Amino acid sequence: MGYSQLAVLLLCAFMLASGTTADTQNNGTGVPARPAEVRIGALFTFDSVIGKAVRPAIELAVAHVNADPSILRGTKLNVLMQDTNCSGFVGTIEALQLLAKDVVAVLGPQSSAVAHVICHAVNELRVPLVSFAATDPTLSSLEYPYFVRATQSDYYQMGAIASIISQYQWKQVIAIYVDDDYGRGGIMALGDALAKRKCKIAYKAKLPPRATNTTVEDILMQVNEMESRVYVIHVNPDSGLGVFSAAKSLGMMSSGYVWIATDWLSAVIDSSIHGNADVMELTQGVLVLRQHVADSNIQKALLSKWNNLTKNRSGYSMRAYDSVWLVAHAVERFLSEGNAISFSADPNLVATKGSSLQLDSLRIFNNGNKLLEKVWSMNFSGVSGPVQFTMDRNLVHPAYDILNIGGTGLRTVGYWSNSSGLSVVAPENLNSSALDSSTNNVQLHSVIWPGQISEKPRGWEFSYHGKPMRIGVPLRTSYKEFVMQDDGPDGVKGFAVDVFKAAISLLPYPVSCNFVLFGDGLKNPSYSDLVQKVSENYFDAAIGDIAIVTNRTRLVDFTQPYIESGLIIVAPAKEVESNAWAFLKPFTFQMWCVLGVIFLFVGAVVWVLEHRTNTEFRGPPRQQIMTVCWFSFSTMFFAHRENTVSALGRFVLLIWLFVVLIINSSYTASLTSLLTVQELTSGIQGLDSLISSSSAIGYQVGSFSRNYLVDELNIPESRLVPLNSPSDYARALELGSGNGGVAAIIDELPYVETFLSKYCKFKTVGQVFTKSGWGFAFPRDSPLAEDLSTAILTLSENGNLQRIHDEWLSGTQCNADNNGDASNSLSLSSFWGLFLICGLACLLALVIFFLRIFCQYSRYSSEVEVQFPEPQIVNRPARLTTIKSLISFVDKKEEEVKNALKKRPNGSRHPSIGDSQHPSMGNTAREEQSTLPT
């Protein structure tokens, strides 16, 4: 309410003069003297549930303050009470009357609606307004700086309710609330809290502030027609029981319903103005919240005094008691710091002097801002717990008891606190120690729900009241294996229909369905239009081969996919028959070249290793070359006749034969595959080549593939050709793009698999380039979608989903996955590891061989040079002579070298490489020298 509305109330109400108090005088020392009396006001409805509880609490608190010598020494605290009569208009008048009596603070009001109006007045006059019952979260806004909430905000209470709803996995609730500031502010906070937990308010049922029984029944009948069965009721304590009375008469307090009441109901139960038996009878099975008040010594000490005054006490009465002490402590600190209690005329009201309203009697509390600072800084232990404020001006440690009404009493099923969330442990125990994950976020104790059931209600019911659900089914003209029209009682059949029926049968509750065909029967209908009908509630659901794509999920909710899908390319292909040179195809040209080189290389290595010790690898040069070639290639067939005698030669041959074994096996397998399986080839290499070309592309009528090609792949619509049936597919692919057909078709994988099972002359190109699935569509936030998803997963786990698939979609004659794009020839990359091992083995053997040769040659040549110095030959370089001698030594037989080295101790002549140049060299040496390779 704005200032203009406040002015209207002032004009209508303030027709009286009010008493004033003199300003406090100082004692001549410059320090203001303590006043003999400090006035505070109290605003509430005397004859109300909360009013009857707080009045004795306020009176008792004032008496205790005045009797305590440690506070307000020499100053008496006086409270002036005004009855607001549950009226915003009357409450405003009463508030102005209190403010005209120079009160330093006002306790109350209990109504959030009245508090919104009064806040403007206290802001103007700078008087703190300490409320013990106004819970509207919007009162904490910066617009009301002088409003002090001495109770818990509904912001936290609605957070507790959202936690309960999330705990029981309900997704939607119906809010029943009184349509005033208190109700609207609380339900707004509930909506925000539910949104954080991915839940929502399905409907807001507004009750007039003074609703009649007939009005309440009409509203409840309306919400009973809706799907949700979880009700959050946020009304006033004095009229709230009328809602449960009407609900009971309408049968809404039976099994299947969930009622969650805010703390207004606990205030009613804690009071004694209503018969407890009547209240309990109306609210059996209801969950109710109550502000948590921890047991303390202060509370126990007051119980006896409280019982003597009244039996009507609640959390609000304790908050009111602490509010008095809050103001008393703030005033004590205010006076102790030398601040004076004084009032001055409001310049905004002086202009109205002479008016019959006498508004100039309202005066500004000069040091009201300082007293407000003292209130915000207070920190003490009260009856209701710690009284301390946070930075956002709320009490610390907000917590609630979660109670369940059953029988003749209340039973605590858990707690909620802002720091620990839901728990079965009292919040003060969690706050006093580190939170233990084993006790946090645990299940609440068991609840007895309406209808005396202990099993958690599902939270929703079908809103059709016996009417079957209208299920939209596409009337397909092609690929009828998935869904088709039938003459049976359901009118439809197919793979998708059987999956839906099987899933429905697994639900723990009966669902009656009426299948309605969608389409003209001339061509496949638009599935986007079918989904749109579901979002508009024309259909209660839609089943069939409906792809789950992004733009559709914005309109409806889908179940778990019951079959994988995605777009793939289908292109024409031609069969390639085997030819006379097919035996060369198992290996690539590069592979054949490398094989020839490595065969010769291994043969040469074996010749080097065997030449000195094996007579089969000796002889004239031509014979040795033929031996190397024959040995190399005969190993391919394991038909080599030459035996290896050296250890290094056998090592190399063993590695090489293993490599040959692998190569032979691979060649045989690849050749067999090429001769028995026909290869499919196509001009389309993949999605990129298809997009970059100008060829026509086909798509299925009604499928989302058209929008995907245009919107996502930016293919011009002029290139797209709509096709309806598999025969249209085959005809268009056979004609080709230049002859009125298409170069390729892009369609969903299940359709393509069905098409290729009948038309083997075509093939898929590449892989599926979108990932999606088929599901059943339901309106947004439909709980049936979640239950059916669970049922579909069950079908998948028990094998029934695969059984239904095989029943409708089995018997394929062609392999849809044979893309034929990759060559069947084996390349070098498949064998480079084997070749590397073989090459390393050959190099290792050669290194060992030549190291041994060098050692022998060193020993051999040194002895010969000592005994037979070789004459200098001017025309022949020394390096050339050494190389020639080394080659000659390598060509010698191993046995000859060993025998020559053994004769050294006897001093006999050593045959030398250079013996041919000495006259004493025998004929044998010259003959052997003549056999050196040229």
From TrEMBL:
* Family the entry assigns: Belongs to the glutamate-gated ion channel (TC 1.A.10.1) family.
- What protein name applies here? Glutamate receptor
Concerning InterPro entries, the annotation shows:
ANF_lig-bd_rcpt, GABAb_receptor_plant_PBP1, Glu/Gly-bd, Ionotropic_Glu_rcpt, Iontro_rcpt_C, Iontropic_Glu_rcpt_pln, Peripla_BP_I
Q: Which Pfam families match?
A: ANF_receptor, Lig_chan, Lig_chan-Glu_bd
- Where in the cell? Membrane
Signal peptide stretch? 1-22
Please report the record's description of how this protein sits within the membrane: Multi-pass membrane protein
Disulfide pairs?
A: C760-C814
Question: What SUPFAM superfamilies does the database record attribute to this sequence?
Answer: Periplasmic binding protein-like I, Periplasmic binding protein-like II
Main localization, broad class: membrane
List the Gene3D superfamilies.
1.10.287.70, 3.40.50.2300, Periplasmic binding protein-like II (3.40.190.10)
What does it do?
Answer: Glutamate-gated receptor that probably acts as non-selective cation channel.
Ionotropic glutamate receptor C-terminal domain residues are 470-811
Biased composition, class Basic and acidic residues, residue ranges:
925-934
Question: What is a biological process (GO) this protein takes part in?
Answer: monoatomic ion transmembrane transport
**Species annotation:** Urochloa decumbens
Q: Does the keyword Membrane apply?
A: yes
| Keyword annotations of the record | Disulfide bond, Glycoprotein, Ion channel, Ion transport, Ligand-gated ion channel, Membrane, Receptor, Signal, Transmembrane, Transmembrane helix, Transport
| Bilayer-spanning residue ranges | 589-609, 647-667, 831-851
